[in-house]
Amino acid sequence: DHTSEQLTELLLNQSAKRLVASYLEELVAQRLAEGLARDAGVAEGTSFGKLDRKTRNRLVETIKRWSLGGVRAVPLEKGEVVAGGVSLDEVDPQTMASRKVRGLYLCGEVLDVAGPVGGYNLQAAWATGFVAGESAAASLDTEA
Fold it and tell me: Cα–Cα–Cα angle for 108, 129, 141, nearest 5°?
């Protein structure tokens, strides 16, 4: 957590040709960086060399006071999923065993599965979890 003075110094030390957005994207995700720049009044495509003192100070103030909000619970029916994870091509659907790592069973949000909101993702997590668990237990029986 930098002071306003330290943050100003960091901004002043950036290359004149460097885009403000590219620096902000090192601090936060791209979409957040865009919002941060917009809130500070920094035009898209602005380089540090074109940033006047007033705008630079406003950017520092915006970075210091910008709040992303807190984490809070949401009702189940409003829940969302995050896509990404292990490709289904890398998993045996009959056992949920990894095709790359022997003895590794995958399920739920570890997998690259994202259905529509409405319980589909929960069902996928439960079903793959059941299959993975049963398969892992069965593999222990055959190894003994």
Answer: 140
* Type of residue at 111: L
One-letter amino acid at 88 equals L
Give the separation between CA 88 and CA 13, rounded to whole angstroms.
46
Segment 23-70, tens digit of pLDDT: 998 888 788 888 889 999 999 999 999 999 999 999 999 999 876 655
Q: What is the DSSP letter of 50?
A: G
Distance CA 77, CA 50 (A): 47
Domains in the chain (CATH in brackets) are 4-65 (1.10.8), 80-143 (no CATH)
Helix (H, G, I), strand (E, B) or coil at 71: coil
Both tokens of residue 91?
A: 């998993």
- 2-21 confidence digits (pLDDT tens): 899 999 999 999 999 999 99
Query: Cα separations (Å) of 54 from 7, 28, 39, 58, 59?
Result: 14, 23, 14, 6, 9
